[in-house]
Amino acid sequence: MYKTVPCIKEDSGSFTPGTHEVIEEVPLAITINGRHALTAMVSPHMMREFVTGILYTERIIHGVDEIESVHVEPGKVSVLTTNPFKILVSKKTVLSGCGGSSSYLDVAKLPRVASDLVIDVATIISATKETLQSDLHVKTGGIHIIGLFNDDGAVIITEDIGRHNALDKVIGHGLMKGVDLSRTFVVSSGRISSEMVRKCLIAGIPIIISRGATTTLAVTTADQANLTVIGFVRGQKMNIYTHPGRVRGALVP
Amino acid sequence: MEPADAREDFPILKDIIYLDSASTSLCPVQVVRAVDEYELQYRANVGRGVHRLAVVATQKYQDAHDKVAGMIGGRQGTTVFTRNTTEAINMVALGMDFSPGDRIVTTLLEHHSNLLPWFRLKNQGRIGLDTIPPEKDGTLEISRFFDAIDENTRLVAVSQASNVLGTVVPVKKIAGLCKKYGARLLVDGAQSVPHMPVNVADIGCDYFCFSGHKMLGPSGTGVLWMKEPDLSPMLVGGGMVAEIKADHYREQPGFLGYEAGTPAIGAGIGLGRAVDYLQSIGMARVQAHENSLTGRMIRGLSGIGGVDVYGPMATDQRIGVVSFTIAGMHPHDVAHILDEASGIMVRSGEHCCSPLMRHLGATEGTVRASLHLYNNGEDVEHLLTTVEEISRMT
């Protein structure tokens, strides 16, 4: 997940040669049914989960049973679907930067969340704390973390250079394990973007939580599609931006 | 899926009673469709091209290998597609490096395909050969292996289930003996893999050979599984080479190094589909279903005057391959009448096992009725009724 690379360290005007742990970033070319579909910049682990997640959140597949096989090799993944000549995909590049890629964000075409999941403030705080405990983050300072939780606690917590990638990984994991995503919530180490909202809506995840901020587009999209967005979970505080009914006791009179 | 639900996947069963699956099994429509799909929708060569059809075909062909390996618990080894069991066994015979004094142990229960490769090596003066005869009841006595295997034994080649007597051979015990003396073990699984759960890791063999066409796969398919890819490839040429420099070459890793030339791609993919089909029922269920029919068949045939049944009587020591003779009737005549009178397909003759036939004293061979998951009690009753009628004719 990381490599130690040389660097020159500056401290109070003095320069000394040293090393630092730098998080790995690799291009991953995804081929679907023999055609190059997209290239993503990712942290090279949980490739199968990532590909399952991104194919699902990009709505190229509508369930894991549509995947016939996934071959993972260094730098590339080849996916066969059960109907290999019906799924046609266009090329695009997904960047790992904060903005992520521009998937289509037409709220009218996004599913509304249908879930009566309600969670406690204490659960939000403890899940956020659990998600953010990352040795890798401490070492490299350059990783995003996403946790997927349900009634039993953490389903999976994973890391990636991109929080969108990490979100696809946990969604892929959930799908592969047959987890009922309508009974889960996700916790992100970074900002909640409209792209992350879109992924949650497609996966049917009702709540997204972050210790960081969110964006106007994320909030308006979530508001229209019945997704609960919670930001700035720090200490005992948090901001509930949309659909507070899913947080027990949060309905302000 | 239950075995009873499988019959509609084999349309020919509406017209005939098929009791010759030990020779080759029927092929369900799902397998035929998988082959069709390859031929019509993504036909391309494997491992060579970058266009989308080549990528799809290559991945499906690789997946078929993985499925077959998974079915026999052999994912840790190398699974090579061949034309049939015969080719797989010959690949072992031609791929091993023998030294003076090496001996091979085999048995009289074997199919010609697990005898002739060793006869040839013996005739070439490259090995000595020890052949263990079966007991009167058609079983192999393990003590005879104790006597035959020693430090000079390089290879023991034995089938897991006899194609004539149905005998299931204690290959795991034999594997233990092989280990003790440093001999390698080849198991001919042509008659076992289609009918019972098989796990090569549990057996502890080095080479495992079987046929796809006996396990609902397309004809022209077989498998060589190797614990270690330690055989010299029988064929060299295109597809199996990773690098060529001057007159030297380096073989591809894995199965690719053993599949020179364009393989039977559609058939191989069809074999993968056949594995899916068998696993949708489950091999333990296939075995239980066939065992119950075998018991009925053996009891019924044994009760008919003038009929001799060969091989073990207990169904827990055998598969659904039942050899019998009717006194005063040539086996070919019996088979012919079974077809003419009742539309029942059986095999007759020596079943590629001349040495065994001589050993059994069945000079004209036997009639062999063999089962698969798509047979039912009615098939067996039809056979018994017709055999009874034939026996009254003599």
Secondary structure category of chain B:
alpha/beta
- In round numbers, the mean pLDDT of chain A is 89
Please list the strands of the largest sheet of chain B in the order they lie side by side.
2-8-7-6-5-3-4
Describe the sheet with the most strands of chain A: 6 strands, mixed
Number of domains of chain B: 2
What amount of the residues of chain A lies in strands?
25-35%
Distance between the termini of chain B: 43 Å
The fold-level CATH name of the largest domain in chain B is Aspartate Aminotransferase, domain 2
Low-confidence stretches of chain B: none
Taken from the alpha-carbon principal axes, the silhouette of chain A is globular
The fourth-level CATH homologous superfamily of the largest domain in chain B is: Type I PLP-dependent aspartate aminotransferase-like (Major domain)
The averaged pLDDT of chain B comes out at: 95
Count of β-strands of chain A: 13
Strand fraction of chain B: 15-25%
CATH level-four homologous superfamily name of the largest domain in chain A: Cytidine Deaminase, domain 2
Percentage of residues assigned to helices of chain A: 10-25%
Radius of gyration of chain A: 19 Å
Please bin the fraction of helical residues of chain B: 25-40%
Chart the SSEs and their pairings.
The complex is a heterodimer of chains A (253) and B (394).
Chain A: E1 2-11, E2 14-23, E3 26-32, E4 35-42, H1 47-57, E5 67-73, E6 76-81, E7 92-94, H2 121-132, H3 135-140, E8 144-150, E9 153-160, H4 163-176, E10 185-188, H5 194-203, E11 207-210, H6 216-224, E12 228-234, E13 237-240
Parallel strand pairs in A: 3-6, 4-7, 10-11, 11-12
Antiparallel strand pairs in A: 1-2, 3-4, 5-6, 8-9, 8-10, 12-13
Helix pairs in contact in A: 1-4, 4-5, 5-6
Chain B: H1 3-6, E1 17-18, H2 29-41, H3 52-71, E2 78-82, H4 85-95, E3 103-107, H5 116-123, E4 128-132, H6 142-148, E5 153-159, H7 171-181, E6 184-188, H8 200-203, E7 207-211, E8 222-226, E9 241-245, E10 248-251, H9 265-281, H10 283-302, E11 307-310, E12 321-326, H11 331-342, E13 344-345, E14 347-349, H12 354-360, E15 366-370, H13 377-393
Parallel strand pairs in B: 1-13, 3-4, 3-5, 5-6, 6-7
Antiparallel strand pairs in B: 2-8, 7-8, 9-10, 11-12, 12-15, 14-15
